[in-house]
Amino acid sequence: MTPTPVCVHLVHGESTSRLQMLPDTGADVTVIGTRHLQMLHIPLSSLQSLPSTTTLTADGSVMTPAVGCFYATLRLHGKSCTAKIQVYEGIQTPLLSYGHCMELAIISPAFPKPLLEVKHINRCAEMTHPPTTSPSAARAHFLREL
C-alpha cells in the first residue's frame, strides 16, 4: 500500500514553504528534485556539496549523484525536526526518510526499522548430515527427519 503524501512546512532561512512529501520508511535520506528546489526559491548555487557516495533506490539500482544538499526545519502537526535534504535531478516526488517520519510522528515509535543490510547464508555450509546419494538413503533420511 502506497502511503499518502503529507503537507510539510519547510523552513529555510527566512522563508517557509509548504511541500507535499511522501513518507518513505525504507529511505535513509530525505530527497527532493531540482524542480522542487525552484518551487522553494532556493538557488542551486546555495547547495552544499555531498561526499561522493553510492545511493541505491528501492530496487537496488544506483542513483545519479546528488546535485547537493541543504538544511531546513520540517514542521508537521506541531512536531518539527532539522533535516538534511538531498537534491537530485529527476526526482518527481519528494521523499521523507524513515528518521524524519519518526521525528515528525508520521509513524509510530513501534514501527520496525528498515533493514540496512541483508546477509545471505550459504545453506550448503549449514548441512549437519552428509548428502545422500541413493534413493533408499534419501527415503530413510526423509522418514527420520519428519
Q: Please tally the β strands and state the result.
A: 6
Average pLDDT score? 85
CATH superfamily: Acid Proteases
Roughly what fraction of the amino acids lie in strands? Answer: 25-35%
Query: For the terminal residues, how far apart are their CA atoms?
Result: 38 Å
Helical/strand content category: alpha/beta
Order of helices and strands: EEEHEEEHH
CATH class: Mainly Beta
Report the uncertain regions.
Answer: none
Amount of helix: 10-25%
- Overall, the morphology is elongated
Order of strands, main sheet, comes to: 3-5-4-1-2-6
Number of helices: 3
What's the story with the biggest beta sheet? 6 strands, mixed
CATH topology: Cathepsin D, subunit A, domain 1
* Known CATH architecture: Beta Barrel
Radius of gyration: 23 Å
Total of domains:
1
Short overview:
GO terms for molecular function: aspartic-type endopeptidase activity. Keywords: Hydrolase. The chain has 146 residues and is of the alpha/beta class.
Descriptive notes:
The chain has 146 residues and is an alpha/beta fold. The chain has a single domain, classed as Cathepsin D, subunit A, domain 1. 16% of the residues lie in helices and 28% in strands. It contains 3 helices and 6 strands. A 6-stranded mixed beta sheet has the order 3-5-4-1-2-6. Strand 1 (6-12) and strand 2 (15-23) form a beta hairpin. It is elongated and about 80 Å long. The model has no long low-confidence stretch (mean pLDDT 85). It comes from Chionoecetes opilio (Atlantic snow crab). InterPro entries: Peptidase_A2_cat, Peptidase_aspartic_dom_sf. Keywords: Hydrolase. One of its GO terms (molecular function) is aspartic-type endopeptidase activity. Residues 19-32 form the Peptidase A2 domain.
